[in-house]
């Protein structure tokens, strides 16, 4: 299946001409995944980066006692798995599929060839890594300045995007991992939003009734 449209939208490859994109496309492969499948696990050797065509994946860190922290949620158009290409290290997280998904896998070797031939394109890598750093800074700030209820409001709004009717792509346990709190505390926060009339909840489907109040609570 042609994958050039997916490559064209990725920050790292925005400056490539059509011929170069076609050359890169020839080195890629498609991966089909089911919910619960792992793309990789922490400390795995790294040889490829990935672009999400459809579906959602979580980048997960685990504690020694098995607790999970979801450090990033990858959705269509997102690129992940690029950091080891720059530092030569193994995978720093698990990459787990949250729903049926398709990925484009791109060998590091093919990307490094582009950089060696077009060094100016490394600025696109700087742009990507800076975006990652800003996101990490935002998550750190949330953990310091927002309580569990505030972080829950913020994550629900992020998942909803512009829609007022949305379903969670993750389980309650996975949502708790994204928020950095226990499942019980996250459920209590959601129950408070329902009681206040800010949202309605039906199983894993949510309806935002008062976006303004949710946004205020997420600040």
Describe the protein's architecture and organization.
- Helix 6 (148-160) packs across helix 9 (211-217).
- The N and C termini lie far apart (43 Å).
- With 219 residues, the chain is α+β, with helices and mostly antiparallel strands.
- The chain is elongated.
- 26% of the residues are buried.
- It has 2 domains: 4-142, Jelly Rolls; 146-217, Winged helix-like DNA-binding domain superfamily/Winged helix DNA-binding domain (Arc Repressor Mutant, subunit A, Orthogonal Bundle), CATH 1.10.10.
- The strands form 3 sheets. Strands 1-8-3-6 form a 4-stranded antiparallel β-sheet.
- The chain has helices at 4-8, 18-25, 83-87, 108-117, 122-145, 148-160, 172-179, 183-196, 211-217; strands at residues 29-33, 38-40, 48-54, 57-62, 68-74, 79-80, 94-97, 101-107, 165-167, 199-202, 205-208.
- It is 43% helix and 24% strand.
Give a short overview.
The chain is α+β, with helices and mostly antiparallel strands and 219 residues long. The chain is 43% helix and 24% strand.
* CATH C-level name of the largest domain: Mainly Beta
Can you list the strand order of the major beta sheet?
1-8-3-6
* Number of domain modules: 2
Number of separate helices:
9
CATH fold-level topology of the largest domain: Jelly Rolls
**Series of secondary-structure elements, N-terminal to C-terminal:** HHEEEEEEHEEHHHEHHEEH
Shape: elongated
Instruction: Determine Rg (CA atoms, Å).
Output: 19 Å
Strand content: 15-25%
- What is the average of the pLDDT values? 87
Q: Structural class, from secondary structure content? A: alpha+beta
Report how far apart the termini are: 43 Å
Could you list the spans in which at least 5 consecutive residues all have pLDDT below 50?
none
* Strand tally: 11
Q: Which superfamily, in CATH terms, is the homologous superfamily of the largest domain?
A: Jelly Rolls
Sheet with most strands:
4 strands, antiparallel
């Amino acid at each position: 299946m042609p994958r050039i449209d997916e490559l064209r939208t990725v920050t790292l490859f925005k400056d490539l001409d059509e011929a170069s994109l076609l050359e890169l496309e020839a080195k890629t492969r498609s991966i089909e995944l089911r919910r619960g499948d792992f793309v990789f696990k922490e400390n795995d050797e790294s040889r490829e980066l990935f672009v999400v065509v459809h579906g959602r994946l979580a980048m997960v860190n685990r504690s020694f006692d098995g607790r999970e922290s979801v450090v990033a949620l990858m959705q269509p158009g997102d690129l992940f798995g690029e950091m080891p290409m720059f530092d030569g290290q193994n995978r720093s997280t698990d990459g787990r599929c949250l729903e049926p998904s398709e990925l484009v896998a791109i060998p590091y070797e093919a990307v490094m060839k582009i950089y060696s031939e077009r060094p100016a394109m490394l600025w696109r890598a700087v742009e990507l890594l800076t975006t990652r750093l800003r996101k990490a800074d935002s998550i750190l700030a949330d953990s310091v300045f927002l309580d569990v209820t505030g972080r829950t409001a913020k994550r629900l709004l992020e998942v909803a995007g512009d829609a007022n009717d949305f379903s969670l792509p993750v389980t309650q346990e996975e949502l708790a991992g994204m928020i950095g709190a226990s499942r019980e505390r996250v459920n209590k926060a959601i129950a408070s939003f329902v009681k206040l009339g800010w949202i309605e909840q039906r199983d894993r489907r949510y309806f935002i009734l008062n976006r303004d109040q949710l946004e205020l609570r997420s600040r």
